[in-house]
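RECORD TYPE: inverse folding
INPUT: structure tokens
STRUCTURE:
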């Protein structure tokens, strides 16, 4: 399957907003550039009209130039290798590609080959989720990662001592990538499932549920998360903006969850709720 690369020239203040908008249109990988970012989408999911409508909504606030080109799926490695920089998160977690050296000071080391999947740690939401994971006891816990992308958060759960990990993703090629990354990091036992919230119905309860998706999916799927969260368990959410937090918090409280804390980075939020 081929992908389209849409390269947008836009100022940094609006880059995150447009990233979120494009994610809603089916774009599922983003790479920062010097003057904006590139977004990637499966060719059959691309709609020129939808893209134009999104850009038109912000026309009074920002000027955006863009180009579109087709790239073959097998060429994605070349794209991300050119742009992928290793990260050090929370003073403890190294996130790197296989061709990078492991930092000596890293307590936890995660190797990610992202292909076309979201979740290298470069996006604020992934970093925020990992920072929140570091605050929770995962030792011997049962953990669920919804919308797992590359599998980075599920792998982080393994690094922190979780013994049973389930990861769920709606795209088959992303499931394949998450499984590859799990095995690469020594966590082949992670149960990576294809599907959405319906795949967890009836599961044994989880101690920790991670969901880094987007506001609308979180609001819709929250009851499914709550149904499989142990009493006293934690729900970590991200993929939304500070202005969305009251809506997310209200939905959680309607389901009997208690707000704990949240972190913010460039207007993106990751929040912790407790059952």
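DESIGNED SEQUENCE:
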């Amino acid at each position: 399957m081929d992908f389209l690369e849409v390269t947008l020239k836009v100022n940094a203040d609006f880059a995150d907003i447009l990233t979120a908008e494009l994610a809603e249109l089916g774009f599922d990988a983003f790479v920062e550039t010097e003057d904006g970012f590139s977004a990637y989408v499966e060719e059959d999911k691309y709609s020129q009209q939808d893209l134009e409508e999104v850009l038109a909504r912000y026309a009074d606030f920002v000027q955006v130039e863009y180009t579109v080109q087709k790239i073959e799926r097998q060429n994605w490695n070349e794209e991300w290798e050119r742009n992928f920089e290793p990260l050090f998160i929370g003073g403890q977690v190294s996130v790197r590609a296989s061709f990078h050296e492991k930092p000596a000071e890293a307590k936890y080391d995660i190797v990610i080959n992202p292909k076309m999947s979201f979740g290298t740690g470069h996006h604020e939401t992934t970093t925020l989720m990992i920072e929140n994971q570091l605050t929770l006891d995962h030792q011997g816990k049962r953990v669920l990662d919804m919308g797992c992308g590359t599998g980075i958060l599920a792998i982080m759960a393994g690094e922190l001592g979780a013994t049973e990990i389930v990861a769920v993703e709606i795209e088959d090629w992303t499931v394949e990538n998450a499984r590859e990354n799990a095995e690469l990091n020594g966590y082949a036992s992670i149960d990576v499932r294809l599907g959405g919230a319906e795949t967890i119905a009836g599961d044994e309860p989880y101690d920790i549920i991670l969901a880094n998706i987007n506001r609308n999916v979180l609001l819709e799927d929250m009851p499914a998360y709550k149904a499989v969260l142990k009493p006293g368990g934690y729900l970590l959410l991200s993929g939304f903006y500070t202005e969305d937090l009251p809506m997310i918090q209200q939905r959680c409280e309607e389901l009997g969850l208690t707000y704990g804390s949240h972190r913010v980075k460039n207007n993106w939020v990751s929040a912790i709720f407790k059952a």
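NOTES: Residues 12-24 form the longest helix (13 residues).
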